[in-house]
Amino acid sequence: MTDQKEPHDLGDENESKQAASESPITTRRGVRSFVLRQGRMTEGQKKAYERSWPKFGLARENGMIDPRQVFGRDAMLNLEIGFGMGRSLAEMAEAAPEQNFIGVEVHLPGVGALLKEIEERGLENIRVYNIDANDVIDLCLPDACLDQVMVFFPDPWQKKKHHKRRLVQPEFVQRIRHKLRVGGILHLATDWENYAEHMMEVMGDSEGFANTQEQGQYSPRPDYRPVTKFEKRGENLGHGVWDLLFHRTN
Questions:
Q1: Which residues are involved in binding substrate (predicted)?
Q2: Which residues are catalytic?
Q3: Are 102 and 133 in contact (CB under 8 A)?
């Protein structure tokens, strides 16, 4: 889950520097849904990264994974795209030890923070990518391997001229569809009403998906999705939150 901040202007992307990885964050060309923000890991995050990345980290260079081999078991597999600082992903994994979770985040401090959470909670059921989610989808995940994909509070890109940078787009949704098993869930959440409307329009028109609610209706927040501190703060200010749950039909 990502902190809601005013997005950088397009020109800032050219100034953003690659995170501390020898491998590029993305191999895809064209419009991106993210900008690499400058930020350093805390000492605790850095040490957690150094200790735990070899065990929990996954890399593009490893190619297509076999989830059963990665986790050492066959279990329900969840993918969270853009986990922010990782607390909510860690809470979900701790609450469901019988399930497996893969988290994707481009910002290295968030990866360090999640690895610190993994250590402190003694979790074994999470693996982490520090690359563009598009590369994870295209190059790392077998078709029909996922039971659920979660995209919680992605960057809303609220300026109209930046709407094309929003992650949830028809082409992206169809690529997600192929990675979900039939019956698998795509769970989206946002606290920007305009983005919620955009998500509903995209999902309503997406082949192979059906709303778990009545047509055009948003879903109540499932118990498994933790309420973030940003969400609580927004609710206190009277802001809404919209969840969309669609399942793959074919």
A1: 159, 191, 228-231
A2: 155
A3: no
Using CA atoms in the order 220, 223, 224, 228, what is the torsion angle rounded to 10 degrees?
A: 80
Binding residues: 80, 105, 132, 155, 159, 191, 228-231
pTM, whole model, 2 decimals? 0.85
pLDDT in tens, 120-143: 999 999 999 999 999 999 999 999
Q: 191-237, pLDDT tens digit by residue? A: 999 999 999 999 999 999 999 999 999 999 999 999 987 788 878 88
Binding residues for substrate: 159, 191, 228-231
3-26 residue pLDDT tens? 443 333 433 333 333 333 457 866
Q: Which of 128, 233, 79, 224 is nearest to 243 (CA)?
A: 224
Identify the band that residue 65 occupies on the pLDDT scale cut at 50, 70 and 90.
Answer: very high
Chain Cα centroid distance, residue 71: 19
Tell me the CA distances in angstroms from 21 to 75, 146, 196, 205, 242, one per residue in order: 30, 27, 33, 38, 35
pLDDT of amino acid 37: 65
Q: Would you state the structure tokens that stand for residue 6, as one six-digit string? A: 């005013």
